[in-house]
Design brief:
Belongs to the aminoglycoside phosphotransferase family. InterPro entries: AGP_Transferase, Aminoglycoside_PTrfase, Kan/Strep_kinase, Kinase-like_dom_sf. It is a single chain. The chain is an alpha+beta fold and 271 residues long. It has two domains: 93 residues, Phosphorylase Kinase, domain 1, CATH 3.30.200.20; 166 residues, Aminoglycoside 3'-phosphotransferase, Chain: A, domain 2 (Alpha-Beta Complex). Helices cover 38% and strands 20% of the residues. A hairpin with a 7-residue loop joins strand 2 and strand 3.
Length: 271
């Protein structure tokens, strides 16, 4: 989350007193991409101090920030994730302060280095296989499609769906049309693994050819493996369809389940 097109400089935000010393002396920048009702700041420029990220949310978003904190601490035993430095929760607000991770996003690298695109996809798939290999029995979080459908229905009824952000093939659809189309793809055979929930190119950090970190962990939990595969597959379409083929080859799926792909992409439209 760096670069002028993704953030803008801002004044320091008001934080709880217990967090004030930890953020003192930093320059602040506010993320302007994908805040989803919350606020994300990058704290940087402090001599001999690491960059930090601060997430803040109120009401329902405070619950999401709390969910991310709990999942981040759990996933740290298995994969490289940001380290929680401070967390404060009140009845209606949450602040999550965490270390920044080095590396560039997979999106940045795919845009800037066409010759390395297959190698980048290989690194992403290797990391995804590590995630999916975590024993389901060790994961305390549920993120399956039934749980997410329930949350999606609540969001639809509350008028929270941003239909202008739908993928091209669903431009002009209503949220109810997406909901109805999803029902036509159920039931489906389940293949549960530990998933990230939003395995997109902006959430994966790469350095020296390897994924060195994963961020935005609020949806981590047990779900069908296509929850992650569908989002990554869809992201790669922006660059070259051959990268999508590479995904299946490296992951080891000879015949992708198109029904599951469509279901999880439509489900993602509602979040």
């Amino acid at each position: 989350m760096s670069g002028g097109e993704r953030e803008r400089a801002c004044t320091a935000a008001l934080v709880p007193e217990s967090m004030a010393a930890a953020v003192e002396g930093y320059e602040w920048a506010r993320d302007i991409v994908g805040e989803s009702g919350g606020v994300v700041y990058r704290l940087h420029g402090k001599s001999d101090a690491p960059d930090l990220f601060l997430k803040h949310g109120t009401d329902a978003v405070a619950d999401e920030v709390t969910d991310e904190m709990v999942r981040m601490r759990w996933l740290a035993a298995y994969l490289p994730v940001p380290r929680v430095t401070h967390f404060v929760r009140t009845h209606d607000q949450a602040w999550l302060l965490m270390t920044a991770m080095h590396g560039r996003t997979a999106y940045q690298l795919l845009r800037s280095d066409e010759q390395a695109r297959f190698a980048i996809v290989d690194a992403l798939v290797a990391f995804l296989r590590r995630l999916h290999a975590i024993p389901v029995s060790e994961c305390p979080f549920n993120s399956d499609h039934l749980f997410r459908l329930s949350r999606a229905r609540t969001r639809i009824d509350a008028g929270l769906i941003e239909i202008d952000d739908f993928d091209d093939e669903r431009q002009g659809w209503t949220a109810e049309q997406v909901w109805t189309a999803m029902q036509g793809l159920l039931p489906m055979a389940l293949d549960p693994v530990v998933t990230h929930g939003d395995f997109s190119l902006d959430n994966l950090l790469i350095h020296d050819g390897e994924v060195v970190g994963v961020i935005d962990l609020g949806r981590v939990g047990i779900a069908d493996r296509y929850q992650d595969l569908a989002i990554l597959w869809n992201c790669l379409d922006e660059f070259d369809p051959s990268l999508q083929d590479r995904l299946w080859q490296q992951y080891g799926i000879a015949d992708p389940d198109r029904s599951k792909l469509q279901f999880h992409l439509m489900l993602d439209e509602l979040f």
